[in-house]
Amino acid sequence: MMGRFQGIIGIALILGLAFLFSNNRKKINYRLVVSGIGLQIAIALLVFKVAPVNWFFQQLGKGMVKIEGFARQGAAFVYGGIGVVQPPTGTIGNYAVNGFVFAFNVTATIILVCALVAVLYHIGLMQRVVALIARAMNYVMRVSGAEALSNVASAFVGQVEAQVMIRPYLKGMTKSELLASMSGSLACIAGGILVVYANMGAEAGLDLAPKLITASLMAAPGALVISKILYPETEESQTMGRVKLEVKSNYTNVIDAISHGAGDGFKIAMNVIAMLIGFIAIIAFLDWGLIKIGHIFNPQFDLSLNWIFGKLFYPMAWAMGVPDADVNNVATLLGQKLSINEFVAFKNLTDKAVPIISEKGLLIVSIAICGFANFSSVGMQIGGIGEIAPERRADLARLGLKALFCGTLASYLSATIAGILI
Which residues form the Concentrative nucleoside transporter N-terminal domain (predicted)? Predict the structure, then answer.
C-alpha cells in the first residue's frame, strides 16, 4: 500500500516538474493530459492484469528471445571457431566464455532485427501497423496526425527512422509538434535494441521482454502528455484530426531490403560497441579520479559516479514507488541511463553489477531506463532529423534539451504507473 502511495507522489512530482517548466501554462490541454495518462493506465492494465493479453505478451517476449538463436546461426558462420562453440552434432552451441560475448550477441541480433524491419517496411506491413495504432491514439488524445505517427513509429524503429515516416510533414510542423515528436523518439526504444535488452535479461535469468515491450508502448502517449504540458500547442497544425501515412518503400525488392537492413544494422551495432568502449573507459577514468578526491577527505571513502547518481536520483526513485531496499541502486541506474546511456544501465542491471532484489523494483527500473533519453541521443536527433529537414535545424537545436527532459519524464511516468498497478 505504501508503495502505491509513493507512486501517486511520483506521478504528482513528474507532472509538477513538467508544469513548472511549461512555457505557457494557460494553454495546457488538460483533456489531452488526462486521456494520455488514461491510455498509459489502460495499456498497463491490459498487459499486467488481463490474462489473455499477458499471455500474448509473454509469447511475444519468448519470440524476441528466440530471435537471438536465429541470429546466432549467421554469427556461427562468421565467428565460428573463435566466438562460437560448435559441438560434434553440428548444431549451433553457446558462444565461448560463459555463453555470452557482448559484441557477438549484440552485432548479430541488431543486424537480424534491422533486416526483418526493412522487409516489413518494404512490404508495407510496418507502416500499416503504425498508422492503425496512431489513428487510435489520435482519436483518444486528439493530437495531430504527424506527432501521433512519429510517436507510435518510435516504438518500432529507431529515433531518426521514425521521423523519416513523417518526412513530408517535418517542414510545416509546429514547434509543439516537433518537440512531441522528438520526445517520443527519446522516450521509446527501437525494436532491434529492445530485442538485445530482452536477450541480455534472458542470459541473466530475468524475464524483461514483456516489461520492455510494455514500456515502449506506454512511452508513446506518455511523451505526448509531458511534451504538451511543457510546450502546449498554440499554432495551427497541418495534420490535426487526420492520420495519413504514405506506404512507400525505397527498396527495389525483398533482397534489396535485407541487404540495406543488414548494412544499417551493422552500422548501429558498431556504433553501440564503440560507444560502450568509449563511455565505460571514460567512466573508469572518472571513477579513478573521484576515488582519489574522496580519499583526500577520508581514506575509507570511495567516491564514484555510482555514489553520486545514487544520491542525486534517490528522491525520484523513491517517489516512483521503488521498495526501500532497491531505491539507492535504482537511483544509480537512472543516473547512468540519463548521463551516460541506456546500454550501460541495462548492462549493469543484467550483469547485476548494480543488483535489484525485488520484483517491483525490477519492473520499475526496467521501464524507467527503457528509452533513448540521454545527452548523446539529443545530438544524434539534431544531426539525423536535421539531414531530413535542414530548414528545421535551428528549431531542433533549441528544442533538444527540452526533448531530453520530456523523454526522461515520460519514461518515469510509465514506470511509476506500472509500479502502482502491480
Answer: 9-81
Mean pLDDT of 362-390: 85
Specify the 3-state DSSP secondary structure of 144: strand
Per-residue pLDDT tens over the stretch 358-372? 999 999 999 999 888
Q: Across-strand partners of 99?
A: 95
Cell of 411: 519514461
Q: Which residues pair with 144 in a beta bridge?
A: 240
SS3 state of residue 95: strand
**Helical segments of 123-253, H only:** 125-141, 145-153, 159-164, 167-170, 175-187, 191-203, 209-230
DSSP state of 94: P
Does the pLDDT of residue 7 top 70, yes or no? yes
Measured distance CA(150)–CA(164) in Å, rounded: 9
Strand ranges for 106-160 from DSSP E: none
Amino acid (one-letter) located at 171: K
Q: Are 265 and 192 in contact (CB under 8 A)?
A: yes
Q: Distance between CA 336 and CA 348 in Å, rounded?
A: 9
Residues in the chain: 422
Q: What does pTM read for this prediction?
A: 0.85
Q: Which residues contact 312 (CB under 8 A, 6 or more apart)?
A: 331, 335
Locus of grid cell 539525423: 384
- Output 11-17 pairs: Cβ under 8 A, ≥24 positions apart: 11/37, 11/413, 11/416, 11/417, 11/420, 13/316, 13/319, 14/226, 14/409, 14/412, 14/413, 14/416, 15/229, 15/413, 17/409
How far is residue 237's CA from residue 163's CA, in Å, rounded to a whole number?
Answer: 17
- Residues 381, 403: Cα–Cα separation, whole Å: 10
Compute the distance between CA of residue 371 and CA of residue 185 in angstroms, rounded to an integer.
8
Q: What is the 3-state composition of the chain as percent helix, strand, coil, each rounded to the nearest 5?
A: 75, 0, 25
